[in-house]
Specification:
By secondary structure, this protein is an alpha/beta fold. The chain has helices spanning 2-13, 16-29, 61-76, 98-102, 107-112, 121-124, 140-147, 174-182, 184-193, 199-205, 217-229, 233-247, 251-265, 269-279; strands at residues 34-39, 45-50, 82-86, 91-93, 129-133, 136-138, 150-154, 158-160, 197-198, 210-212. Helix 8 (174-182) packs across helix 9 and helix 12 (233-247) packs antiparallel against helix 13 (251-265). The radius of gyration is 20 Å and the shape is globular. The chain starts with a helix and ends in a 10-residue tail after the last helix.
C-alpha cells in the first residue's frame, strides 16, 4: 500500500524526474526476485539486479522467469541499447537453487519438464548484455555470467563449476561455454575438481574482460553499456550476431558470414550516416535504421 501511495503521488506531480521514478517503481513492482532500473544520461541502459539476498541470489525457476520477462521487455523497448546484469557485492549468483532441484527425484521429472529450458534467455537476447560480477559466481551463476556478452568482475569475485561435488554435472552450458572461453585443460580442471578461480585468474584465462574494485564494477559496466547504446542498435545487433554465429562455424564459413553481414550494413541508413559524419568531421546521428 505504501508503494502504491508513492506511485500515485509521483503521477500527480507530473514532472519528468517524477515520471522517471514512477517508471522505475512500476517496472520493479512487476518482479519478485529482481530489480530493474533504466540508467544513463539518455536512460538507454537497463540495469537488472538479481535480488534473492538470503539465498545468495540462487537461481530458482521464479527468478529465471523474472529475468526472462525483463529481457523480453528490454528487447521490445526501442530506447534500450544494452543491458547490465548484476547481483550483490557478496554474490552475483551462488548457483542454482539446490533445494528446488533436490525435489526432482527421477530422470523423468527433469526430462519431461525440460528442466532449465528457460535459462537461455540471456544468451538469446539480441541486445548486448554485460555481466557485472561481484562475490560468488558459481555453478548456474557462472553459467549465467558466461551467457552474457562481456563479463566485468570485482577483485574479490570467484568463479567455479562445483556441480561435481553434488553428484551431477553442469547443465546450462558450463562444460561447453567454459571450454570455449578458457580452453580444454583449464575447463576440465574446473569441472572435474569443482575448484574455484579468482577474478584475476579468470581475467588471465580469458573468461573475464576486466577486473575492478568491487564498488566500481557496476559503474564501469554501465559506462561500457552506455557507449554501446550510443551506436546504431541495428549495427550493434548485426555485430553481435557476427561474433556469436561465427563462433560456432569453421573459420572459412565464419569469414563468409561476416562478409555478408558487412555487405548488408550498406543497405542501412546508419552506415551512410556514420561514414558521412566521419568525412564531415562531426558526430553521427544514428536512427537505428
Amino acid at each position: 500500500m505504501a508503494q502504491m501511495g508513492r506511485i500515485l503521488r509521483l503521477a500527480n506531480r507530473g514532472s519528468n524526474s517524477s515520471l522517471q521514478s514512477l517508471a522505475r517503481l512500476y517496472s520493479t513492482a512487476q518482479y519478485e526476485n529482481i530489480k530493474v532500473e533504466k540508467k544513463g544520461d539518455k536512460q538507454n541502459v537497463l540495469l537488472i539486479q538479481l535480488n534473492r539476498p538470503k539465498a545468495l541470489n540462487a537461481l530458482c525457476n521464479s527468478l529465471m522467469s523474472d529475468l526472462t520477462k525483463a529481457l523480453q521487455e528490454a528487447e521490445a523497448d526501442k530506447d534500450i541499447g544494452a543491458v547490465v546484469l548484476t547481483g550483490s557485492e557478496r554474490a552475483f549468483a551462488a548457483g542454482a537453487d539446490i533445494k528446488e532441484m533436490q525435489t526432482m527425484n527421477t530422470f523423468s521429472d527433469v526430462y519431461n519438464s525440460d528442466f532449465l529450458k528457460g535459462w537461455e534467455a540471456v544468451a538469446r537476447c539480441r541486445k548486448p548484455v554485460i555481466a557485472a560480477v561481484n562475490g560468488y559466481s558459481l555453478g548456474g551463476g557462472c553459467e549465467l555470467a558466461m551467457m552474457c556478452d562481456i563479463i566485468y568482475a570485482g577483485e574479490k569475485a570467484q568463479f567455479g563449476q562445483p556441480e561435481i561435488t553434488l553428484g551431477t554435472i553442469p547443465g546450462a552450458g558450463g562444460t561447453q561455454r567454459l571450454t570455449r572461453a578458457v580452453g580444454k585443460s583449464k575447463a576440465m580442471e574446473m569441472v572435474l575438481t569443482g575448484n574455484r578461480i579468482s577474478a584475476q585468474e579468470a581475467e588471465k584465462a580469458g573468461l573475464v574482460s576486466k577486473v575492478f574494485p568491487p564498488d566500481q564494477v557496476v559503474g564501469e559496466a554501465l559506462k561500457t553499456a552506455e557507449k554501446i547504446a550510443s551506436f546504431s542498435k541495428t549495427i550493434v545487433a548485426m555485430c553481435k550476431e557476427a561474433v556469436n554465429t561465427g563462433y560456432e562455424l569453421t573459420l572459412a564459413e565464419a569469414i563468409h558470414f561476416e562478409k555478408r553481414l558487412f555487405h548488408a550494413t550498406f543497405a542501412t541508413n546508419d552506415r551512410k550516416e556514420g561514414m558521412t559524419a566521419f568525412v564531415e568531421k562531426r558526430s553521427p546521428n544514428f536512427k537505428d535504421s
